[in-house]
């Protein structure tokens, strides 16, 4: 055996440290989640700043963050933002609640009865593919141009989607749970309230959370007609004068309001359905 061979045997090369393979859907810490989310927003903001600073596009098409910030201060000082926020939030709240109050029981009925499903689901599927924008002239004829028309547009944009999503949530209740309830001698009402609703409630809540986001998107359409204040109204007005800084400001505000309401709904859901997290 040569000296070099003996040396190699005596002192083997250190093995490379094996990296732990990340699993799909693996959980991360709350701190990591928040830092990653904030980092993504910062990257987008820096890209926006870089593009506008280097004048890679005209300010008419993409104003700088500074210009949007100055417009934000102006909208606060002139009182327009203070009038727009409560008007839009009121319309979202009423329109969404009207849709939810009707969609939840109808969705549960469709999800638990094949006969009701056959009677209602094809019609709801048919209507939900109709563009809500096309209903704007009809809603004016039906209810006028006041806030009732805004409520109706938001209702039409969310109700039919809610019904189908809630029905699907109810259908996902495991059949063995229902069979167990029947074995224990529970009647249909008891099975519905104690098993079906309790099991599907977290998914129903998630459906409401998702459709609330859609309600925010329909706000601009709802405020197209005869509105005097509102976030959507301000965007439409700014388009006429090519005031892109105002448009981007109000789009950002809509995004943050949607994000805030989404996170509030998540927190409420975690508080209401702790048993779901325990079961998982």
CATH architecture: Orthogonal Bundle
How many domains is the backbone divided into?
1
> Quick one: overall form?
globular
Low-pLDDT residue spans = 3-11
Structural class designation: mainly alpha
Q: What is the top-level CATH class?
A: Mainly Alpha
Figure out the total of helices.
12
Strand share of the residues?
under 5%
* Secondary structure tally: strands: 0
CATH topology heading: MetI-like fold
Q: What is the radius of gyration computed over CA atoms, rounded to a whole number of angstroms? A: 27 Å
Strand and helix map with partners:
Elements: H1 3-10, H2 30-53, H3 65-77, H4 80-112, H5 114-128, H6 136-143, H7 147-171, H8 175-183, H9 188-222, H10 231-240, H11 244-272, H12 274-279
Helix pairs in contact: 3-11, 4-5, 4-7, 4-9, 4-10, 5-7, 6-7, 7-9, 8-9, 9-10, 9-11, 10-11
What does this molecule look like?
The structure is a single chain. By secondary structure, this protein is mostly helical. It has one domain: MetI-like (MetI-like fold, Orthogonal Bundle), CATH 1.10.3720. 77% of the residues lie in helices and 0% in strands. The protein contains twelve helices and no strands. It starts with a helix and ends with a helix.
Task: Pick out its properties.
280 residues; single chain; mainly alpha; globular; MetI-like fold; disordered N terminus
